[in-house]
Amino acid sequence: PPLIRREDYRPFDWLVPEIRLDFTLGLERTLVVATLKVERNPNGEPASEIRLNGDGLTPLDVTVDGHASNSWRMEGSDLLVDLPGDAHEIRFATEIAPVANSQLMGLYASNGMLCTQCEAEGFRRITFFPDRPDVLSTYTVRMEGPKDAFPVLLSNGNRIAAGGGEDGTHWAEWHDPWPKPSYLFALVAGDLVARKDRFTTMSGREVDLAIWVRAEDLDRTGHAMESLIKSMKWDEQVFGREYDLDQFNIVAVGDFNMGAMENKGLNVFNTKYVLADPETATDGDYDGIEGVIAHEYFHNWSGNRVTCRDWFQLSLKEGFTVLRDQLFSQDMQGEAVKRIEDVRLLRSVQFPEDSGPLAHPIRPDSFREIGNFYTSTVYNKGAEVIRMMRTMAGPERFREGTDLYFGRHDGEAATCEDFIRAMEDGAGLDLAQFRLWYSQAGTPKVEVSLAHEGEAATLTLRQTVPVTPGQPDKQPMPIPLRLALLDRETGRHNGEQLIVLDKPEQVHRFEGFAAKPVLSVNRGFSAPVAIERVIDSDDLVFLAKNDDDAFARYEAMQELIVGHLVAVVEGGLDERVQDAARSSIAEVMRVIVTDAALDDSMRGELMMLPGQTYIAEQLTVADPGAIHAAREALKGWLAKSLEMELVALHERASGISSGMDRAARGARKVKTQALVFLAAGNPELAERMAAAQYDAADTMTDRQGALMVLAGLAGPQRTHKLIDFYNRFQGDALVIDKWFSLQAGSLHPHVIEHVHALAQHPDFNIKNPNRVRSLYMAFTGTPLGFHAADGEGYRMIADLILALDPINASTAARFVPPLGRWRRIEPGRAALMRGELERIAAHADLSRDTFEQVTRSLG
Ligand code: B3K
Ligand code: ZN
Predict the structure, then answer these.
(1) ω into 596 cis (within 30 of 0)
(2) d(Cα 518, Cα 512) in Å, to the nearest integer?
(3) How far apart are CA 772 and CA 210, in angstroms?
(4) 261: Cβ below 6 Å to ligand 1?
(5) What is the pLDDT of residue 166?
(6) Which residues are designated catalytic?
(7) Nearest-5° Cα angle at 797, 272 to 342
(8) Are residues 410 and 450 in the same domain?
(9) Taking 90 as the threshold, does the pLDDT of residue 657 lie above it?
(10) 645, part of any domain
(11) b (16+ CB within 10 A) / e for 193-218
(12) What Å distances lie between residue 86 and 36, 41, 89, CA to CA?
């Protein structure tokens, strides 16, 4: 497969101002007649033919300007049609087989319904078209099909006509007035019911809202609808963005490659991000739904009204939209906890990506398969980069920048450079050097030290940007650091400052400190960097107890624990030093567990130990077994030292009534956190308490939390509750997904055998991405399973990739990165991981997706 380069971008030679699609729908066979109005692009090259992308299609009945045409040919899978003049109408038909489409790209069948997924290059599996985001057309879509199988017919925009035939068929015609690229096209046909509501926009437009699901799921759509209405309101208030059609439809689908898709006026969602009630969805699921509904809705402006010129610009819409959904969720649920959650995700997924063989800038320079670049780097680091602009400009000036961006580029396919320029002009920032954040990969490292002499504190900051594949030399980048100097006695400070570190080294002097203050730096995680600071553990303890920035408080706790665990793993630590470190961690943890002034949501965050992958990131070469052992040992020690406090916390939290308010949610969070610790210190007690929590549970949050703890324990309650859970929820796909992933992601020493057995379970289905992910993605996080020293876990994932690749390439390729981490793992396991990658690479018929990921990972 060829390498596509950002530098090679050329405008398309033709414009396609209008397209009409006529579908004759069937699950086995669907006929598509496409009619394209094409005109020469004044900005393109004069060409005698037009290239229409296809993927696995055969053109039928090609006509040009109403006459049957022979002047076309195929080149690979593309259709090339001769066009002598400046404007033509091209028409052709294609025939597709939705039930046979296991890739779930293009038009496919799910549970008897038909639906589409076109981003990034799925439209070419439906019909021939210049399938690139800079070709914008207005779409008119007519669908016709059997009324009993497909009573509901949906597409983008507004429904303009509908009718029925005598023969049991019916039809509907939709028109979308907003020009859009093909990746935003969508069609849905099925036996669905809707939760309906209305929204009046700020200028008074009445919008009909509908969330379409299978009849049995209707009563689980309330939260999604509330989230949608909140998102629409928030985007008006915070970004001044108003909805622009008379209808907004969301459809939930059980077979879907990712979370959801922002098709214009017709968002298609994974059921996971729509359906919720307290018995079947956790508090985390509720938040996920709110965030993803918002994300897709926000794309209506950041993505649809202003789209991307080419796929290298993906972060233009994704990074920006992730930031928008993060800010929304911060406003809905509280800023501190949301920020901590976002940073945890960034560090556990994006940091490892940025330090491994798949590292790429948020605006990549080349790819073979764009599907491989829907990454945490493009999404989450992309959001961090725009968040830094917001931090430097302040929210008001940032808003001026986004207003200018939307105003300037409405209706266009834009670039990251366009966004940066709008920020410079609208927000008044100088981003000349800041552009490096778009072109350089790798997580910058910032070394921080604070000295004190006389009345002055001197801060020294030093940055390095690590070497990444294809980028041996790096320039220093502007790194905005929010910081404060805390008085050691009072814990107070005289205000926060923003320092932008834009040189390799900078020194800042602060006067008026008779005693050495304690430095709180990168507050709110103002820059996505790794801070390395010289700091006493006493100061970390002080910050963990006193810092008024919630994130910084969390961070101090993490740093304290990571420092200890890294020292343990690196070995040679003398017993006394080790005990002293553990005692100081236990001391802070006691304050966190018992502090009456802390709210439980925040307490739950502060109690969370740094994750396995984040700890591994701190080591040049990691031994997953050793990290796991050290982490469990610390957990056990903390549980033993704080057993009474943890039991009391669990008891108090159990007394808080169920409900969806902040207090009840916080209580549920700390309850399970307490069990997680106790399981490592006193497994018999934890088993009893978890079983009781399971039995008393009136929410999925409590039930899942209890079962997660039991799944990692050896006692009899493990089996009892797993059987009960299965019987209780059999047939509810989203809950059975949880049942799979709780077992596959557990700390149980026999997790590999469990996963082998689950793969044979009648409910396992390799064609359903949710089920595949719930079994195997959860497994790739297990130190004792995936990283089993004999390589059996690696082999299992490689076998999965090979089996899944011909069925669903984009899902298969997502399992490659865990194996690609080999360079950072101890030599024994590294060789085994590499061996599995080589075994995959040796297969001749790999998809473009898997081929690219495997070769880059071996690189
Ligand atoms: N834009 C889609 C992602 C499409 C992924 C295609 N492989 C969802 C989102 O980010 O909102
Ligand atoms: Zn998105």
Answers:
(1) no
(2) 14
(3) 29
(4) yes
(5) 85
(6) 296
(7) 45
(8) no
(9) no
(10) no
(11) bbbebebeeeeeeebbbbbbbbeebb
(12) 14, 9, 11
Q: Is the peptide bond before 697 cis (omega within 30 degrees of 0)?
A: no
Matching residue, tokens 């049991």: 168
CA distance to 252, 459, 482, 498, per residue, from 508 (Å): 54, 5, 13, 12
Beta strands (DSSP E) in 522-598 are 530-533
- Answer whether 235 contacts ligand 1 (Cβ < 6 A): no
CA of 296 to the centre of ligand 2 (A): 6
Residue 35 and residue 90 in contact, taking contact as beta carbons nearer than 8 Å: yes
Answer whether 262 contacts ligand 1 (Cβ < 6 A): yes
Is the pLDDT at 735 greater than 90? The verdict is: yes
Query: How far is the C-alpha of 340 from the C-alpha of 552, rounded, in Å?
Result: 10
What separation in Å is there between the alpha carbon of 317 and the centre of ligand 2? 7
d(C-alpha 405, C-alpha 261), whole Å: 23
**Using an 8 Å Cβ cutoff, are 398 and 388 in contact?**
no
pLDDT at 573: 83
Do the Cβ atoms of 486 and 546 come closer than 8 Å?
yes
566 neighbors 619 (Cβ within 8 angstroms): yes
Q: DSSP assignment of 784-822, as one string?
A: TTTT-TTSHHHHHHHHHHHHHTTT-HHHHHTTHHHHGGG
Residue 106 placed within a domain: yes
**Ligand 1 atom closest to 257 (CA):** 7
138 and 6 co-located in one domain = yes
> Which protein residue's CA is at the shortest distance from atom 1 of ligand 1?
261
Asked if residue 702 has its Cβ within 6 Å of ligand 1, the reply is no
Mean per-residue pLDDT over the chain, rounded: 97
CB distance 371 to ligand 1 below 6 Å: yes
CA geometry: angle at 552 spanning 551 and 556, to 5°? 120
Q: Is 118 helix (H, G, I), strand (E, B) or coil?
A: coil
Residue 799's pLDDT is what?
Answer: 98
The residue out of 191, 223, 243 marking a domain boundary is 191
> Which atom of ligand 1 is closest in space to residue 296's alpha carbon?
11
331 in a domain, yes or no? Answer: yes
**Residue 516 φ/ψ, nearest 5 degrees:** -65, 125
Task: Give 184 Cα–ligand 1 centroid separation in angstroms.
Answer: 10
State the amino acid at position 81 in one-letter form: V
Q: Which two tokens stand for residue 842?
A: 């040796």
Kindly state if the Cβ of 549 falls inside 6 Å of ligand 1. no
Does 120 contact ligand 1 (Cβ within 6 A)?
yes
Dist. CA 454–CA 576, nearest whole Å: 35
Whose atoms come closest to the Cα of 813: which ligand?
1
ipTM associated with this complex: 0.99
Range(s) of the domain holding residue 493: 445-534
Q: CA nearest 128: which of 41, 59, 39?
A: 59
Shared domain check, 103 and 36: yes
Q: Domain tally for the chain?
A: 3
Same domain, 396 and 472: no
Cβ-based neighbours of 521, under 8 Å, separated by 6 or more: 448, 481, 482, 483, 531, 533, 552
Per residue in 94-146, pLDDT (tens digit) is 999 999 999 999 999 999 999 999 999 999 999 999 999 999 999 999 999 99
Residues 457 and 371 in one domain: no
Distance CA 47, CA 80 (A): 11
- The atom of ligand 1 lying closest to the CA of 303 is 1
Look at residue 246 in the predicted model and tell me its pLDDT. Answer: 97
E-strand ranges in 325-427 read 366-367, 413-414
Answer yes or no: are the C-beta atoms of 702 and 696 closer than 8 Å. Answer: yes
The three-class DSSP label of residue 302 is strand
Residues with CB under 5 A from ligand 2 (ion): 318, 321
**CA–CA separation, 810 and 336 (whole Å):** 35
Q: Which of 156, 166, 349 is nearest to 251 (CA)?
A: 156
**Helix or strand holding residue 461 (H, E):** strand 456-464
Ligand 1: centre distance to CA 97 (Å): 23
The predicted-structure confidence for 22-60, as pLDDT tens digits, reads as follows 999 999 999 999 999 999 999 999 999 999 999 999 999
Q: Whose CA is nearest to atom 3 of ligand 1?
A: 261
